[in-house]
Amino acid sequence: MASAAHFSEEEMAELREAFSKVDVSGNGFIDANELTDVLKAANLPLPGYKARELVQNLTTSENGRISFDEFISIFQNLKSDDVAKSFRKQINKKEGICAIGGTSEQSSAGTQHSYSEEEKYAFVNWINKALEKDPDCKHVVPMNPETDDLFQAVGDGIVLCKMINFSVPDTIDERTINKKKLTPFTIQENLNLALNSASAIGCHVVNIGAEDLKEGKPYLVLGLLWQVIKIGLFADIEISRNEALIALLREGESLEDLMRLSPEELLLRWANYHLENAGCNKVNNFSSDIKPDFYSIIKDSRAYYHLLNQVAPKGDEEGIPAITIDMSGLREKDDVQRAECMLQQAERLGCRQFVTATDVVRGNPKLNLAFIANLFNKYPALHKPENQDIDWSSIEGETREERTFRNWMNSLGVTPRVNHLYSDLSDALVIFQLYEKIKVPVDWNRVNKPPYPKLGGNMKKLENCNYAVELGKNQAKFSLVGIAGQDLNEGNRTLTLALVWQLMRRYTLSILEDIGGGEKVNDEIIVSWVNETLTAAGKDSTISSFKDGKISTSMPVLDLIDAIQPGSIKYDLLKTEDLNDEEKLNNAKYAISMARKIGARVYALPEDLVEVKPKMVMTVFACLMGKGMKKV
Fold it and tell me: Among 229-243, 315-329, 379-393, which range has the highest average pLDDT?
């Protein structure tokens, strides 16, 4: 039998997707006759007797069923570029398997990259609804989800910029988006703006370039869109933004425990809360190490029916009319038809987005997650507890600095994704990945990896944190006076941020050093470069340091951008003298977006310029220096 080791992770993902489309029941097996039919439909060079012989030799299960391991063995034996492509194509088109089948695309390098037709369909409908009234998108919206409209629509960058702002409002200053009389150059600017802004909100955009989006490479377009959409859907699924989530606190659990949960875990907890109140089966309790599969209980759509019934408005709140969920569809015997009836009820709540009936039955994790998140955002049906002994003052919202650091980490593709800065760094695994980004070698044999044991698990995490501090002091040569592993493990805000800032600073400077051929860079060198560049371009602006009060107007930043790319700044959109706070912020929003538009991957926020936050200001000028040096 062929080993899974013969396949890359990407190939295995494609095979699992193909297998799941045949395995409609989700029981882990497909019927041997069904496989024979697919092979025959694919016009593979195998006569019927040979196909049957192959199945008989490989099938070890009862009743002629084929497991996934046997499935990949068959595929391995038949594997060739043409055969594999045809095989996947026929699986995706096989009637009765799914309403919207997946497909595969071949990259320019000749490797196979699959993408999901279901995702394309769902994302197109979401974008159509989000941008239906946007006058700047009338040239592409509404898109037809049945075609490849989406992959052409993203090519000018406008839709991507708009969707980033839809998910995280005001990320991109609308004045910086090129909207009319587009040329290859202005399209390139839009795509730079979209990619760098996506990175700034925490999307992992490494290996995605403007050319990929211009060409509309499906797997890259869908991957980026999913990140943008997910960030928007998850934005309010945290306790500091929605204190009613405290209703999900379990007996014997601390508020800190609840606050450590990721948005996915909070959604799972929320769904279970309502299912339990409805007297339905729910997912078993889980620890931080074991995350049970919620989708195993939603495939028959019965759980969804009860969830909708629980969260639907009851008319007891002022101004919100009652919506009665028709539960008669529960009597439908066919899973797909029952799911369709359920979705008709979801539509009455305005929450049908993301899934089709087939997506529900097949338990598509990504789309069902989006469906649940959208339902939560519209109808959380939770009430902030009034009588519990809760220290409300301990619920602190994320600061701008913390959000910037978190988004920076996530944009680098760290795993697991950082949702809560301190709790998610408490085992130092993310910190080790950041060390490698700045070329500090990590001995992974010394690193304890999850799952951690229930007894002594925190000691394993503490050992990691001690090693992280050791690396910072001895290898990275960071200033970590008074910082111990325990501070990282316990989430000491001040001391954790001190290490994270030095990691971000080193990463930023290392990019400059790579561009400059390895020459060391410090604050003084950056300030000198800024002033020399401004003077050479005939600009009046200068800065004395990253604390210079003139930076609050953003004029030094704007002039530097115009010096790097002459004529890019539209000064008639700005006020340059005697600015009030609102005008300063207006300039700063324009400056940050323009920096990203010319190709600088800036993570700082407009408020950082207005308030002249030296750390973040340094990163802005350093990123612009990197862009300027590349042009020389």
Answer: 229-243
Question: Which pLDDT belongs to residue 55?
Answer: 58
Q: What is the mean pLDDT of residues 169-193?
A: 97
DSSP 475-535: TS----TT--HHHHHTT-HHHHHHHHHHHHHHHHHHHHHHHTTT----HHHHHHHHHHHHH
For residue 85, CA distances in Å to 43, 75, 119, 462, 490 come to 11, 11, 20, 49, 51
Name the nearest CA neighbour of 191 among 175, 168, 166, 215: 215
Give the whole-angstrom CA distance, residue 242 versus residue 382: 10
| Strand 29-31 with 65-67, pairing | antiparallel
DSSP states of 176-212: GS--SS--HHHHHHHHHHHHHHHHHTT---TT--HHH
CA distances from residue 402 to 14, 279, 408, 421 in whole angstroms, order as listed:
37, 40, 10, 7
DSSP class of residue 95 equals T
Lowest mean pLDDT among 86-95, 601-610, 618-627: 86-95
pTM value? Answer: 0.81
Rounded to whole angstroms, the Cα distance separating 117 from 319 reads: 40
Question: By the 8 A CB rule, do 165 and 171 touch?
Answer: yes
Burial of 413 (0-12, 13-18, 19+ CB in 10 A): middle
SS3 at position 33: helix
